[in-house]
Amino acid sequence: MNIAFYIGTSFDLEDYKAKIIGKMGPANEIVVVKRFLKPLGLANAREEHIHSNPVFSRKPTRKEMTAAERSLGIPFTLLLRYWYNWDRRNERNRAKMLEHYAAITQYFLYWKRFFSENKTRVFVTTYESTFPEIVSVQVARDMGVKVIYIYGGRVGGALMLCDENCGPIYWKKMTEKEKGEIYSMLRERYNARKTAENANIAKDVRRYTDYSPGNIMYKLGRLASYWKNYYAMPRIDRLRTISPFRLFYKYLEGQVRQYYSMRLCREVDYANMNYFLFPMQFDDEANASYQEAFLSQFYVIKSISMSLPMGHYLIIKPHPHWKSRDIPLAKMREVASLPNVRMVSPDVSTIDLINGSKGVFIINSTPGYEALVLGKPVVTFGHDLLFAGREPVITVHDMTELPGLVMRLANGEVRLDEKKAKELVARYYKHLIFLEGGFGMNRTDLTDADAEKMAAALEECIAAIA
Predict the structure, then answer these.
(1) Element (DSSP H or E) covering residue 357
(2) Does residue 219 sit in helix, strand or coil?
(3) Among candidate residues 175, 150, 208, the one with its CA nearest the CA of residue 11
(4) Distance of alpha carbon 385 from alpha carbon 364, whole angstroms
(5) Structural domain spans, the chain
(6) What are 88-98's pLDDT values in tens digits?
(7) For residue 179, which of 187, 191, 167, 171 has the smallest C-alpha distance?
(8) Which terminus has fewer CB within 10 Å in the chain: N or C?
């Protein structure tokens, strides 16, 4: 089986992928495409440094750029905007935009050649919203290459294998008994978790609001390391990430946003309210920028607010990771000022909020999965392939349907189909790959046993889909 791995996305430092590859069986013909020169030393794989290819040493013609854009089927400017750190001021600079268009075209030409010459059957990568990753997956899909994303699971301590649309890949059979056991176990676990649920998240992000001298020195050291690595990159690599100056600015901006946004949160007696829950999206992530490029969570919140009957409220909870660091203050003030909307602290228990609600509205949030387990109706406005179009989740892509749906939910006329909820929840859970290693926002560390488990899961999945 001809398998290609891409090593070099923004967030994974890739050690874990090398561990997984090293555990894969000899029957696989593996090529590792990497952004970094450093050899991985894998005995069972051939390594290729992406930027050593001749296509990156010449400037593509305007004709090639036009042909690449048409073949991809994605306007280049939109492709750049999928990246949540994209600076739209660039769009007023013709020279900068042409430089980015040329880089997109170079990646397009590279991947066309690579998949063809290597007769690649399966392409394994990591979900990202920067143009090199999107181009690689788009070209693979167009050439009939099966794509597998290694993606974080919606249950802590686990990874999931997803397809080119970031929908879960299901290859295992499941009995009715298993469905019931998994559903019951998850319901018991979530109800027991309650306010302790954000402990791991808080631990993961505690350095953002730690102003001790030790942490300030740690931050300065990280910035110095980023500075050094940024300017050591080839120019084309710097086009896919932000400068140290912009990184520092965004950090300071985020601290100000968090401080003022958290002052908008209210103490709410939700136990004695008729309400629906909307867990806010983390705007600075691929799911919000790439999958939902044309869908604003603030538009959704205002639409729900306009659809609520008298005596009903919408509780919004900021994402516990960033606590609104990524959201403009004007947007937060706008939704917090709506008369039937209440914004609560990100530290309030999501499980308690779900249990007391009449239903949960999401775009593609993990609380949608938790709400299904806890027996609450779930309405999605997004295109996440775990939820959208899958029963018993209610999918709304036409806002004219919303007022009638909200009224039926408020009147208790819409009930969750528990049988279908068990099917969706248990099937997803069964395909999670639970691991012992550490999972941080910017790094995944696997033990040797984890790597063996991931390699085995990948090989099973590949055998089922290729």
Answers:
(1) none
(2) helix
(3) 150
(4) 9
(5) 2-172+432-465, 184-201+267-427
(6) 999 999 999 99
(7) 187
(8) C
Q: Indicate the SS3 state at residue 304.
A: helix
Return the pLDDT at 11: 44
Token output for 151:
């993606």
Cβ burial of 147 (10 Å; 0-12, 13-18, 19+) is buried
SS3 content of the chain, % helix, strand, coil (to 5): 50, 15, 35
- Could you give the C-alpha distances from 223 to 168, 226, 249, in angstroms and in order? 36, 5, 12
Residue at token pair 């802590």: 156
Tell me the C-alpha distance between 165 and 146, whole Å: 11
pTM for the model: 0.91
Four-CA torsion 409, 413, 419, 420, nearest 10 degrees: -50
As a whole number of angstroms, the distance between CA 402 and CA 450 comes to 44
Q: Where residue 287 falls among pLDDT bands split at 50, 70, 90? A: low
371: left (phi over 0), alpha (psi -120 to 50) or beta: alpha
Q: What DSSP line would sit under 248-269, residue for residue?
A: HHHHHHHHHHHHHHHTT-----
Taking CA atoms, 9 is separated from 34, 60, 128, in Å, by 9, 23, 7
- pLDDT at residue 194, as a whole number: 55
What whole-number distance in Å separates Cα of residue 404 and Cα of residue 407?
Answer: 5
Which two tokens mark 295? Answer: 């869908």
Contact 190, 154 (CB under 8 A): no
Single-letter amino acid code for the residue at 359: G
Query: What type of residue sits at position 30?
Result: I
